[in-house]
Structure formats: structure tokens, C-alpha cells
Amino acid sequence: MHGFNPYFYVHQPLRDLVDVVKEIRDLEAETEGLLEKILSFST
Q1: Helix and strand counts by DSSP (H, E) for the chain
Q2: Residue 43, SS3 per DSSP
Q3: In total, how many domains does the chain have?
Q4: pLDDT at res. 2
Q5: What's the pTM value of the predicted model, to 2 decimals?
Q6: pLDDT surpasses 80 at 40
Q7: What is the DSSP string of 31-42?
Q8: Can you give the pLDDT at residue 38?
Q9: CA–CA separation, 23 vs 27, rounded Å?
Q10: Is the residue at 3 inside a domain?
């Protein structure tokens, strides 16, 4: 009996580390200061 993997799992190759780091840095720049704004509402 086979498990679910042969039917539902589709292998996705890993992305290049340089691309992943760039995406993380872009997201960080996009959300810069957001955490501070959120936390300042509680004080």
C-alpha cells in the first residue's frame, strides 16, 4: 500500500540562497518599523 506522497507530493527544487536572502532583505526593508508601530499601541 502506498502513502500519500506518490499522489500529492510534488518535489520543488531548492531556490538559490542568494535569491532567498535577497527576498528576506526586501521583506525586512518593506516592513521596517512595523513592529515598533505595532508595539507602540500597547503603551
Answers
A1: 3, 0
A2: coil
A3: 1
A4: 66
A5: 0.52
A6: yes
A7: TTTHHHHHHHTT
A8: 84
A9: 6
A10: no
Range of the domain at 34: 14-43
| Structure confidence at residue 43 (pLDDT) | 56
Task: In whole angstroms, give the CA distance from residue 17 to residue 24.
Answer: 11
How wide is the angle at C-alpha 39 spanned by C-alphas 33 and 43, nearest 5°? 130
Geometric angle at alpha carbon 31, from 28 and 32, rounded to 5°:
80
Q: What is the mean pLDDT of residues 16-35?
A: 90
Distance from C-alpha of 3 to C-alpha of 9, rounded to nearest angstrom:
10
Per-residue pLDDT tens for 7-24? 788 888 999 999 999 999
Assigned C-alpha cell, 12: 520543488
Sole residue written with cell 527576498: 23
